[in-house]
Amino acid sequence: MATPVSTISPESLKISQRQLFAPSLQEIKNVLSPALAENFSEVSIEVVDCPDLTQQPFTLAAAGLGGSKTILEVGGPSFLLPSVQRDKVYELKSILNRINNGKMEKKGFVIGAGAGPWPRLSRNCEMMMNVIVSPTDLKNETRLSWVGPNEKCILEESLENDLRFALLANLYLSEGKPGKVLKVHAKKRTGNLDFIATMQKALESHYKDKLVGLGGTFLLKQGKAKQHVMRDFSSVPLTTEKALNDWLKFYDMSAPLIAVGTFVSAETDLDLRVQHFHSFSHHGEGGHYHIDTTPETVEYLGYFSVAELLYRIDQPAVGVTFGKD
């Protein structure tokens, strides 16, 4: 039975707005290409028309990543660590209304990684947000995963009208329109960095005095990935990286996995999470992406867009130095 918990009033949320530096896709391609080539033996990166992402293998709620491209970062690991703040429950549509001055007048397509609505399951869970919200329509294909009996990963679709999430989220907001995107294809990992970290660190190195952010989706086409799912909330404070990792349940999850999330060039004074992707599948697995575990056979295919605006929502007063991977 769902636990009755009120969501945070959007009017009470502190929201900071930051204009992002938005280089051309061609420039981003030139920045990312050398880094990807250092970390993978086969790399192709192109500026292309976005394919229809509602189709296989991505199966997202909207076709494209274009229109009013925005990153939303809500809450943070400080609301989970060292002890959970259970009152940090948010509702997406009310947040979108708030940043649109009280009224949403166009479609919002939101994808990304976060903590799921624990009151929905009466337990902690991971969220892979995948939803279209508009003044007249709702299409919610969000997934939730949690650690079930015998520590098996359980993955299910969210309730259609439940747009809640908890604690933290890194979300990419657009109008779901077609348009140009960055297509990144990489095979056979030869370096130590994961697929997203390779690109994030390239941005960090190149744009030292500018904040750049990307959002989108990638497919683990071949191989397996190390992913975690949060167990139910810890009864004792998690004060170290070791305690956190002992609490998390790690899995070796199999392709195909469809990941959604964001990455930015720097933490800045906004205490941003520089990368955060969660993946779901159609074979019952899903969680927080860390890195592939089959470097010899791994294959990635990603589509990303450059965000123009960032909203930092309910930034914790005090950050944490661990748990942000």
Automatic annotation (TrEMBL):
Keyword annotations of the record: Hydrolase, Metal-binding, Nucleus, Zinc
SUPFAM superfamilies: AF0104/ALDC/Ptd012-like (SSF117856)
Residue span, DUF1907 domain: 31-313
A single GO molecular function term of this UniProt record: hydrolase activity, acting on ester bonds
Pfam families linked: DUF1907
Subcellular location, record wording: Nucleus
InterPro entries assigned to the protein according to its UniProt record, in alphabetical order: C11orf54_DUF1907 (IPR015021)
CC terms in the record's Gene Ontology section: nucleus
Known partners and oligomeric status: Monomer.
This protein's name: CK054 protein
Biological source species: Fopius arisanus
